[in-house]
Structures are given as C-alpha cells and as structure tokens.
C-alpha cells in the first residue's frame, strides 16, 4: 500500500532523510519511532507530497509526485495539532465533508466512532487535548481512506 524507495530529502544544505526505504502492506500498521528531529514527520510530509524529495514514494501504486491527486485520494492525515477555531465538531466535520464532497450522514458515524457524539454541539475550544485529538481523528476517518497517516 505504501512503498518508499531510496528517499532523500534535503533542506538547503542539510540532508534530512538519506536513502529511506520501506514497504507497508495493506492491513498492516506501522509506527515510525525515533527521537525529535530524526525525520518521522519529514517522511510523512514526503508521503503527502508536501516536501520535494529524491527517490520514489507510492501509495496504492500511485506515485506521490507524479500522481499526487490519486495518491492523496487514498490517504487521510491526522495532524499533530489541528486548528478548529471556534467551531463545534459538527461544524468542523460538515466543512470537511462539503469540501471533500462526502455524504453529510457520515458525520454522526465518525463522531460515534471517536466517542464525541455527546459533545457534537459544544465549542472545540473548550475541549481537552485528548478530545481535540479525537476530533482530528474523526476528520481523518471521515473520508474512509485506506491509508491513515
């Protein structure tokens, strides 16, 4: 499902990733583990097509750089920090669903999956960090993409 081959990422004169290669099969879960600054987020940025790199990266057989729309259509991303402003979970999810042209009926399902149904109309700014992460997960799950980063 994910294939990285000899990925090299340079920022200025610094080499951030040097020859990274790995493969993730369908149904497999993988964790990137390492200290701060070791390149975990940089690998995700390459997979999302947000960082120019050398080498090859594919998602579902689609080249991340040559076929970015196809690759991203198979991918959902859970950011470390999301910004929901002054919205409620329903408002945030409705915005994303409309943007992605998804069925609005999916909103109640993902809120239930992450345990936020009872908080659907509360302001996200009042949520704990864990609740905000669960809402971020709901946003990622909304598209039902086969790859979750």
Short description:
By secondary structure, this protein is an alpha+beta fold. It has helices at residues 40-47, 68-73, 89-99, 106-113, 129-142, and strands at residues 2-11, 14-24, 54-59, 62-63, 75-76, 147-148.
Tell me what the structure shows.
With 149 residues, this protein is of the alpha+beta class. Helices cover 32% and strands 22% of the residues. The chain has five helices and six strands, in the order ββαββαβαααβ. It has helices at residues 40-47, 68-73, 89-99, 106-113, 129-142; strands at residues 2-11, 14-24, 54-59, 62-63, 75-76, 147-148. The strands form two sheets. It has a four-stranded antiparallel sheet with strand order 2-1-3-4. Strands 5-6 form a two-stranded parallel ribbon. The longest helix is centred in the C-terminal third of the chain and has 14 residues, at 129-142. The mean pLDDT is 93.
Which structural class should the secondary elements be placed in? alpha+beta
Let me know the number of strands.
Answer: 6
What value does the Rg take, in angstroms?
17 Å
Strand count, sense and closure of the main sheet? 4 strands, antiparallel
Count of helical regions: 5
Question: Mean pLDDT score, rounded?
Answer: 93
| Strand order, largest beta sheet | 2-1-3-4
- The secondary-structure element order is EEHEEHEHHHE
Features:
149 residues; alpha+beta; two-stranded parallel sheet; 6 strands
Please describe the topology of this protein.
Blueprint lengths: L1 E10 L2 E11 L15 H8 L6 E6 L2 E2 L4 H6 L1 E2 L12 H11 L6 H8 L15 H14 L4 E2 L1
Parallel strand pairs: 5-6
Antiparallel strand pairs: 1-2, 1-3, 3-4
Helix pairs in contact: 3-4, 3-5, 4-5
């Amino acid at each position: 499902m994910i294939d990285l081959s000899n990925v090299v990422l340079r920022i200025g004169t610094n080499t951030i990733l040097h020859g990274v290669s790995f493969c993730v099969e369908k149904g497999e879960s993988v964790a990137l583990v390492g200290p701060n600054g070791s390149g975990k987020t940089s690998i995700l940025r390459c997979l999302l097509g947000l960082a120019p790199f050398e080498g090859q990266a594919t998602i579902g057989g689609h080249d991340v750089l040559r076929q970015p729309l196809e690759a991203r259509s198979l991918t959902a991303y859970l950011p470390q920090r999301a910004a929901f402003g002054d919205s409620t979970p329903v408002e945030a999810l409705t915005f994303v669903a409309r943007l992605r042209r998804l069925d609005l009926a999916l909103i109640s399902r993902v809120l239930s999956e992450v345990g936020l149904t009872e908080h659907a109309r509360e302001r996200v700014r009042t949520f704990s960090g864990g609740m905000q992460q669960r809402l971020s997960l709901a946003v990622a799950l909304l598209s039902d993409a086969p790859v979750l980063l």
